[in-house]
Amino acid sequence: MYGWEADKAVEAARAEIAALIGAGPREIIFTSGATESNNIAVKGVGRFYKKRKTHVITTQTEHKCVLDSCRALESEGLEVTYLPVRNDGLIDLQELKDNIRPETSLVSVMAINNEIGVIQPLKEIGAICREQKGTFFHTDAAQMLGKMPIDVNDMNIDLMSMSSHKIYGPKGVGAIFVRRRPRVRIDPVFSGGGQERGLRSGTLPHSLCVGFGAACRVAETEMEADDKWIRHLRARLEAGLAQIPEVEMNGNAPEESRYPGCGNYSFAYVEGESLLMALKNVAVSSGSACTSASLEPSYVLRAIGVGEDLAHTSLRFGLGRFTTEAEVDLVVQQLQHHVGRLRDMSPLWEMAQEGIDIKSIQWSQDH
């Protein structure tokens, strides 16, 4: 009896997730999160169809788990095209068309970039993929789910990765949408008891699945109100940033192609890590690869043409359902204070104020 009750709760959650994206409940496969979903989509499709389709397309600004999955396919003999993006972060649709060929099994393009908040034209990409028979379209929608309307049928999406904690649900659970008609076949990433249609074996964490479903149900109800609130906060943040000289937004796409809850800004002549450490009681992230041993600037910022000097000065800001006006005002107040303080200590800022073009300087080093 207990097992049947748990199964009933999970199936109800599956239906709630499916309803949010216009899918059928049987097209929702539970995973541990979007990283696993991305691995299943990219590796699973690439490996299943590799005997007759040996080509995959993605972009240079995808999440690292997509890029690493593509590199894994390359090591197995498949060819991967990494499309560049324009300076505004958007892909060139004509370039995508030019690179699709009969042996292309998968096109993987992120819905909303997690660093710069740029929204890719999913419907147009889906239409291009559908024109080439047997080319499936996968999108990492972790940043879009529950924040913007998604209809997998209208957008011609064949596979879609989702994560619960991005919509205020429990951590440790996610899902992948896998289209049934036309059917997408996948080579499972790992083996087991055949759960989740054999695509993702393993005992489901029932409580997490139910929490994910509930979060989707709430998101569907609150989406319009959330969007209005987040746009209000974004305008308030940008008004405050406008009071600070030499601040540049990264991924400056048209407003309709930018998600207001994610903004990335460069503060010229201020080291991003120093500014990050100075901001007390504020949760922001640096554009640098601060989660690794590398001090290289973000590969996403480099891909959109941000110079290394500016990339090192960037911070990413997130706004959400529970962000308050007072928190935004606190961030602006601290930024105005600390950017000024750090620039006062910077010889580069002093030189810039004197009208010296920093980029024209030939630096030398005494030995």
What count of domains describes the coordinates? 2
How are the strands of the largest sheet arranged?
1-7-6-5-4-2-3
- CATH superfamily descriptor of the largest domain: Type I PLP-dependent aspartate aminotransferase-like (Major domain)
CATH architecture of the largest domain: 3-Layer(aba) Sandwich
What is the helical fraction, as a range of percent? 25-40%
Please, what is the average pLDDT?
A: 93
How much of the residues is beta strand, in percent? Answer: 5-15%
Structural class: alpha/beta
SSE string: HEHEHEHEHEEEHEEHEHHEHH
Please name the CATH topology of the largest domain.
Answer: Aspartate Aminotransferase, domain 2
- Which of globular, elongated, flat, extended, rod-shaped describes the shape? globular
Distance between the termini: 78 Å
Largest sheet: 7 strands, mixed
Question: What does this protein look like?
Answer:
The longest helix is centred in the middle third of the chain and has 36 residues, at 206-241. This protein has 11 helices and 11 strands. Residues 288-293 have low confidence and may be disordered. The protein has 2 domains: 2-219, Aspartate Aminotransferase, domain 2 (3-Layer(aba) Sandwich); 223-360, Alpha-Beta Complex (Aspartate Aminotransferase, domain 1), CATH 3.90.1150. It is 39% helix and 14% strand. The chain is an alpha/beta fold and 367 residues long.
Quick rundown:
With 367 residues, the chain is of the alpha/beta class. It has helices at residues 2-21, 34-48, 64-75, 93-99, 122-131, 206-241, 272-278, 299-303, 308-311, 325-344, 347-353; strands spanning 28-31, 55-59, 79-83, 104-108, 136-140, 159-163, 174-178, 247-249, 262-267, 285-286, 314-318. The longest helix has 36 residues, at 206-241.
